[in-house]
Amino acid sequence: MEQIVKLDTIAGTAVEQEPLLVLRPRTGWQQLGLKDLWQYRELLYFLCWRDIKVRYKQTALGVAWAIVQPLMTMVLFSLFFGRLAKMPSDGVPYPLFVFTALVPWMFFSNGITQSAGSLVENASLLKKVYFPRLAVPIASIIAGVVDFFCSFVVLIMLMLYYGVVPSLSILTLPLFLGLACTASLGIGLWLSALNVQFRDVRYVIPFLTQLWLFATPIAYPSSLLSEPLRSLYGLNPMVGVVEGFRWALLGTETSFGPMLLVSSLASMVVLITGAFYFRRMEVTFSDRV
Amino acid sequence: MKRMADLAVRVEKLWKQYRVGRQPERYSTLRDSITNAFRSPVGVLQSLLRGQGNRRPAGDDHFWAVKDVSFDIRRGEVVGIIGRNGAGKSTLLKMLSRITEPSLGQISLYGRVGSLLEVGTGFHPELTGRENIQLNAAILGMKREELAAKFDEIVAFAEVEKFIDTAVKHYSSGMYLRLAFSVAAHLEPEVLIVDEVLAVGDAAFQKKCLGKMEGVAKEGRTVLFVSHNMQAVTRLCERVILLDNGGVVGDGPAGQLVTRYLSSSEGSTKLREWDDPVRAPGSDVVRLRAVRTRAEDGQPTDLVDIRKPVGVEIEYDVLKSGNIFHPCFSVHNSEGVHLFSAQDTDRTWMRQPRPAGRYTSTGWIPGDLLNEGAMFVGVAIWTLAPDICHFYERDAVAFHVVDSYEEGSSRGGWLGNVPGVIRPFCKWDTQVERNMPEARHTVPQEQIKV
User: Fold this and answer.
1) Rounded distance between C-alpha atoms, residue B138 and residue A103, angstroms
2) How far is residue B177's CA from residue A149's CA, in Å, rounded to a whole number?
3) Looking at residue B47, what is its pLDDT?
4) Tens digit of each residue's pLDDT (9 = 90 or more) over A266-283
5) pLDDT over 70 percentage in chain B
6) What Å distances lie between residue A264 and A244, A270, A271, B310, CA to CA?
7) Which residue among A7, B14, B92, B433 is least crowded, i.e. fewest CB within 10 A of its CB?
């Protein structure tokens, strides 16, 4: 017993104490601080959970919104692009062709909208407590996965209705969902950090998502383009996601390999630069939100 | 070596710079950047990528909120940080709790830091009490097992057992506050940072909070406590750091520094103004503008001659016409004893509904009533039908009663300490009934004792 006490006092007094944490001014580029983020994973979980719980409270339709939005868009697109403009659809019934693309698209566009506003929305939190700020936009992207699954169920039903049976390639679907997450998180990080500095961002987002919708092969197939152009088209990360979904679920025969590669690279670049830009700007968040 | 070993916080040459007028130009617009982009495309890209003013030279549009602050805090110390508004207290705490970064200097933390900069941070009205406890605990950095062990205790402290699965938007404001404080109070970091938590809630709740804080301090944890509530500071802290204009101007025993703060112009406790009407205490019916203490001659003062009256002036805006208002104030001494409350006795306005406008009501505390020492004045405004307290600003202002030892004070001929919470001037009357011959015998001992 005595020995323990002795050892304790030795440890307490003789050895010079190392500070647990030293706070110094930071300038320039920062490390991503992923370890710190991991330690706060519980907070990340609760932020997601809060976003999910709160999103559809006090709405009449609730989670049904996650289904209504892409369904309505599908009906509109089918009427205007499918019926009137007679857009080709890689041999798939046009409504299904559009809906398969809209499911990941809605996930992406809602994700970037939510995460762009997330820092400003959580201003009171940023000003009062410390936690890795990356948790906020990440949580808002992950919360969108619930909506994604709701609309995905509708997609399955639509496939049953049209009698489309997916091949084994459906197993690759998580990869494409991962790609969608990467792309939306990357864009979300850029926009959320920019939004703290420039509140114009929130006005830009509706235009941005609308333009992006048409810049992505949702109402039309990317097979309209021939090869060197088609790979270049892959610079839009959502091109790879959308065509990936179609290939995995509907088995559309489009040799989109090179394009997918470009998309994957593009979204990785966006995510990594976004994360570093976010970390760099993070220092100013609590003073600016 | 030994001194090093029980360090909890070391702050070295800490500076923090802000841009002046960051309220109006809080965020730049894209337009400015685009306009600049035409002038210097490279520059704008750089400014986009660069953080706010990190390397910008200090010009006229910058000011230092914290200047060259250094101190050590040892484990188990309870330290109060005081200073008037804008002295840099909150900025310092924000840096200590990692919310904002220092511009220069460094902070070394030798233990887990938990901060209570505002209770209820992250509470969401749509979530239930239980859900909010979980969320708030995660935000404050409490681990899941830790929360599970303390959950019942938290709920019991907050006295909301019955409503734990009700959305907090249906809670009364009292329940909401109790729940929020309860979560925060059950945090167990090695260093606890508390900012003005006690400024919320009713008197009973504040008492409970203060009691809890005392408990925390007694457990031997390090506590950094920022407050305008000098009573609470003197009660809780043994040491006080006094800040003024961003720098440390005093560091020492609490009683000594609180007195110095209150009796010097540094404290400027004779006057409290709320420039921003949104943040001022009040409701949409009436809002507090300013509270002042005035001497007999009308000059604002926080040093009052014990023989002289002192006026408590409450300036407020009536925003909605047609209510009868009852302004009042209360006086506490530095031990926290509630000495008295004074109601508005103005016959005109006691019964008459007031049109909207700015009002100033002054209540005069008579001279020769209070004892020497620091007095803390809280102000409130009520309407009786319906019975609403529109605000109660505790410790809005403070003043010091001093005895100059001149003629005519209630001290009489006594030069020592005059005990008691009040010291009214009692009229004394002594009469000689009849002359007696001088005593020849010695008086029995017992009678002398009495």
Assistant:
1) 32
2) 37
3) 58
4) 999 999 999 999 998 888
5) 81
6) 11, 10, 11, 75
7) B433
Establish how many alpha carbons lie within 13 A of residue A100's alpha carbon, considering only the half-sphere containing its beta carbon: 34
Q: Do B141 and A131 touch (CB under 8 A)?
A: yes
Structure token digits, residue B381: 């405004």
**Is residue B171 a contact partner of residue B71, using CB atoms and an 8 Å limit?**
no
B131 and chain A in contact, CB less than 8 A: yes
- Give the C-alpha separation, B2 to A15, whole Å: 9
Rounded to whole angstroms, the Cα distance separating A117 from A139 reads 12
The model carries a pTM of 0.70
Q: How many angstroms separate the CA atoms of B394 and A151, rounded? A: 54
> Mean of the pLDDT values across residues B10-35?
67
The residue that leads in pLDDT, B156 or B408, is B156
Q: Assess B117–A contact: CB distance below 8 Å, yes or no.
A: yes
The CA distance from B253 to the nearest CA of chain A, in Å, is: 26
Q: Which chain B residues are Cβ-neighbours of A20 within 8 angstroms?
A: 109-112
B169 contact A CB<8A: no
Q: Is the pLDDT of residue B97 over 90?
A: no
pLDDT at A232 over 70: yes
Distance between CA B254 and CA B80 in Å, rounded? 8
| In chain B, domain spans | 2-14+64-263, 271-402
Domain range list for chain A = 29-275
So what's the pLDDT on residue B298?
86
Q: Under an 8 A CB cutoff, do A50 and B127 touch?
A: yes
CA dihedral B70, B72, B76, B82 (to 10 degrees): -20
pLDDT, tens digit, for every residue of B139-198? 887 888 888 999 998 898 888 888 889 888 888 877 887 888 788 778 778 888 887 655
Contact B270, B292 (CB under 8 A): yes
State the sign of the Cα–Cα–Cα–Cα dihedral B271, B275, B280, B285.
positive
Residues in A touching B7 (Cβ below 8 Å) = 17
Contact assessment for residue B398 and residue B374, using Cβ atoms and an 8 Å cutoff: yes
For domain B271-402, the CATH architecture is Distorted Sandwich (2.70)
Q: Which pLDDT tens digit goes with each residue over B114-143?
A: 777 666 677 888 888 898 888 888 888 788
> Quick check: B189 contacting A, CB < 8 Å?
no
CATH fourth-level superfamily of B2-14+64-263:
P-loop containing nucleotide triphosphate hydrolases (3.40.50.300)
**How distant is the Cα of A7 from the closest Cα of chain B, in angstroms?**
15
Q: Which residues of B touch A43 (CB under 8 A)?
A: 138-139, 141
| pLDDT tens sequence across A20-65 | 888 888 776 777 788 888 888 888 988 898 888 888 777 777 778 8
pLDDT for residue B21 is more than 60: no
Q: In this predicted model, what pLDDT tens digit does every residue of A136-168 receive, in sequence order?
A: 999 999 999 999 999 999 999 999 998 888 888
Residue A265 pLDDT: 94
Smallest Cβ–Cβ distance between A288 and the set B52, B107, B112 belongs to B52
Residue closest to A108 by CA, chosen among A137, A141, A81: A141
What pLDDT does residue B376 have?
85
Provide the b/e sequence for B370-381 (b: ≥16 CB within 10 Å).
Answer: bbbebbbbbbbb
